[in-house]
Amino acid sequence: MYCPAPFKEDNPAALIDLIKQFPLATVICQSADRLTADHIPLLYEATPDGLGTLVGHVAKNNPLWKLSADQEVLLVFQGVSAYISPNWYATKQEAGKVVPTWNYSVVHAYCSLSAIHEPDQVLRILTELTDHNEASQSAPWKVADAPSEFTAKLLGSIVGINLQIKRWQGKWKVSQNQPKKNQQSIIQGLLTSPIDEQNQMALLVQAHLSD
Predict the structure, then answer these.
(1) Contact 22, 108 (CB under 8 A)
(2) Is residue 201 part of a domain?
C-alpha cells in the first residue's frame, strides 16, 4: 500500500483497535488461476510471541480454507472514511488552490492461514464471535440459545480459520498534510454533517492536529 510518511500509523494499539471496531475483513489471495476476495468477520486474539491471530469461519464449500500454510493472505480492515469538500478549507478564500479528497483509516494485515476442523474448536470460535458482536445488545443472543441439534448440523457445514499475522501496515489519511487552519476548518465542516461517520472522522482529524 502506498503510504506517505505523514499518514503512516504503526502503533499496534491503534491497529488492533481499528480491527476490533471494524472486524469485517476483505480477505484477498491468489488462487491457482485467479485473484479472489472474500468478506469475513474475524476476531482478533493477542499472542505472546507475535502480532496476534485472527479467527473466524467459512463455509466448507469455500476453497479459502484449503490454502497452503506458506501462501500469504492479505486482509484489509476498512475503518472510518469521509469525503472532504474543498469548501471546508480555510485557505480556499486565499487563492482557491484546493481540491476535494477522501480521508480514511485502514489496516492491511499479511497472514498465513490454517484450517480448524475440530468441532469443539469451531464451536469456540462461533461462541466468541457471537459474544463479541452481541455485547452491545440489551439482551445478547448466545449460541446456546439455538437447539443443540441445529448447532451440531451447522458445525458440520463450516470450517474454522486461523490467520496468523506476519506483518501489518496502518494508514490514517486524516488531513495531516494540511496546515492547522485547514485541519480546524475541516473538523468544523465534518461536524456539521448529520452522518455519524463524518463526525467520527472529525475526531480522527482532531487527534492528528499539527503542532
Answers:
(1) no
(2) no
The C-alpha torsion from 13 through 14 and 20 to 23, rounded to 10°, is -130
pLDDT tens string 83-110: 999 999 988 777 777 899 999 999 999 9
Question: Angle, to 10 degrees, between the axis of helix 180-191 and the axis of helix 196-207?
Answer: 160
Residue 149 lies in a domain: yes
Q: Is residue 211 very low, low, confident or very high in pLDDT (cuts 50, 70, 90)? A: confident
Assigned C-alpha cell, 194: 448529520
Helix or strand (DSSP H, E) at 162: strand 158-173
Give the distance between the most distant pair of CA atoms in the chain.
69
d(CA 175, CA 210): 9
User: Does residue 158 contact residue 54 with C-beta atoms inside 8 Å?
Assistant: no
pLDDT for the residue numbered 55: 98
In a domain? residue 186: no
Residue 171 in any domain: the answer is yes
CATH code: domain of residue 39: 2.30.110.10
d(CA 160, CA 149): 19
Number of domains in the chain: 1
CA distances from 62 to 48, 74, 112, 161 (A): 31, 17, 17, 11
Q: State whether the Cα torsion 91-92-95-100 is positive or negative.
A: positive
Give residue 133's domain range. 5-85+102-177
Cell numbers for 40? 469475513
